[in-house]
Batch of 3 targets.
Target 1
Amino acid sequence: MTSAVVVGATGGIGVALCAAIEDEGTFDVVHALSRSGADPIDIEDEASIAAAAARIAVGPAPSLVIVATGLLHQGERGPEKAYRELDAEWLATTLRVNAIGPALVAKHLLPLMPKLGRTVFAVLSARIGSISDNRLGGWYGYRMAKAALNQLVRNLSIEEKRRNDRSIVVGLHPGTVDTALSRPFRGNVRAGTLFTPDRAASQLLDVIDGLKAPDSGRLFDFEGKEVAP
């Protein structure tokens, strides 16, 4: 028996991912974890993450974990357009949710994944975290946090390979998806490039299905193309 885990299961993409995974019928159990859902987790609270891991540990080992959480704006706070807008508290919040939280999820869930056979631990990252692809500047906190997340993926992939040589740890760029996270910025989206959550989930699962062990440690977009670090 096997299980899948989606962290952030009440967000736009998370809900769609859970539905798509359940529809595929590949896994015996799908754990839908979220701050406000029936199976709670708070990625800003390590004790909450550890408790969720303990609940998962009593059932089938997870061979797929997707961390579908993220923070771009909150209340009046949003992406910084210039360095004059930098605020230490907001930077710390952005880093805590987008990078530190997924790191702690990895700390507690990776040990539950099988030591043999293909496993996938995926985090939703973003092209905006690519240093070499940064030509516009701005969005300081979000860029910094996603760059840190991409480095986390690389680090985890190296360590996990020692435990299971068929493990895959990746970042996934879902594109611009019609969710609350992207809502304030849709005016900048080109026609035809705003995806529904259902389409985004389907595309991401297709990418995951096509991954092989040598892909571990990399960032891929919704078409399966590697994003430069």
Target 2
Amino acid sequence: MQQIRQIKVRDLEFDCRVAGDPKNQAIILLHGFPETSFMWIRLMDKLAALGFYCLAPDMRGYSAHACPKGVKNYTVKKLTEDILHLADVLEADKFHLIGHDWGAGVGWNVVYQHPERILSWTALSVPHSRALGKAIKTDPEQKKKSRYIGWFLLPFIPEIIIRKNNFEKFRKLWKNSSPEELANYLTVFGRKQTLTAALNYYRANFRGGNKWPIGEITTPTLLIWGEKDMAIGRAAIDNNLKYMKGDYTLLALEGGHWLMQTNYLEVEKAVVGHVTKYRT
């Protein structure tokens, strides 16, 4: 049975969903934008039933007591450190890692910086940061798909527009979510600081001069991508292979960006196969 556990990391306290026996091998699951750990509930139950211990935090900015003010507090470096500190609390020297969207963006960095700690890595929707960055610079389709990022970098205006009509724009993104999932998202984003904190992921990491220190990946990697993804095009996915120096599998699905909601069974099958293959 899943529970909500508060885990304190330095001066922050993360709201985390946990499932399974804490004595079992750990899997950490990282949500993206604009979602929360709720997105992982079904998969966590499946993985826990297979003998894993799952932890999915509401990440920095999304947890009520882990929402510091200021763009500087949302760099990939700080987001990466959060995940490693959570693993330390679990006493998980080695663990499996799964991430979607921004959770994948952070996850790639965790895997690159600390390959000795990651047993397997599964990225949903978002490829290696440099693969995506190259596509944004050189591929017309990706440039078009990524235009929203420039808008998110503006101060105040995105918050005002996104909050209109009770998050009408976000509701369109959440159209495949269950009523319970939708209620959770609206509760979290209804907090005063959460939306700004979530947008600060972009503001802290996509402005000039903020380079992500990331290179070749040796960890066994599964990348799951939807061919109709509204944010990530084929060029970025094709670029990914250049950085894969270990076991690597690409699974392209007939789906969009929100694969956990629209292609769940395919995702579950692939993830289960991947983590069990590299179980120790």
Target 3
Amino acid sequence: MEKTKVVLLSGGFGTRLGEETMLRPKPMVEIGGMPILCHIMNIYDACGFNEFIIALGYKKEMIKQYFLNYMYLQNDFCIHMGQATVDIVRHRQPDWTVHLLDTGLSTMTGGRLHRLRDQLCGDTFMTTYGDGVGDIDVKRLLDYHRSHGKLATVTLVKPRARFGTVDLMGDQVVCFKEKADTGGWINGGFFVFEPGVLDYIGHDTDVLESDVLPRLAEQGQLMAYRHDGFWDCMDTMRDKQYLESLWASGEAPWKRWRED
């Protein structure tokens, strides 16, 4: 297994999902009976990455409880009441190391990385949000990042709807325009960062998209990895329903792992 750590930014409020996120944090909203957070972790695991740092915030206790009880939630088991013991009948457990770290209730996306700097200061690390899926080969993404020698790589995608765009000079990002109504390539949320990126973040209020990435682009330190395949983000209930329909069809494009 590849030793590169994967940071999952999972602390936001997810207000555009309405009632779903009144009850649970957005990464715990389910697609096909499984939290979207686990779909994302499986994307990385399928490419050989199995050490995750989950940056917690809103309703962090639900994510902690889920992973504490993961073995029982994902398997059949038998309880021997008199002996107060539990036997796992069907054992299906991923070989993951999961660090669950509180990064604050109202901390912004860049600030969450800043709070994790002690865990990230030594090596290249990958980062993504807790709501986006795609048929992205993250091993190939990492290889591309290592080939260009810059501090940061952002995966660019072409979504079903318009979000934000970037201006490119070759493969170098020269201007980052988040959520402008112009179409084209957008930030797909699958990043690779060198520890030096943390020097571009100083406060809890720093937003990765509008503060950190533009600073990196201005310094010529942000490169683009173009992904022409499937990508989608569970931003609204319509998005959730769309992803549910793909999963129910048995042909979800982001599913690159085998189920025993």
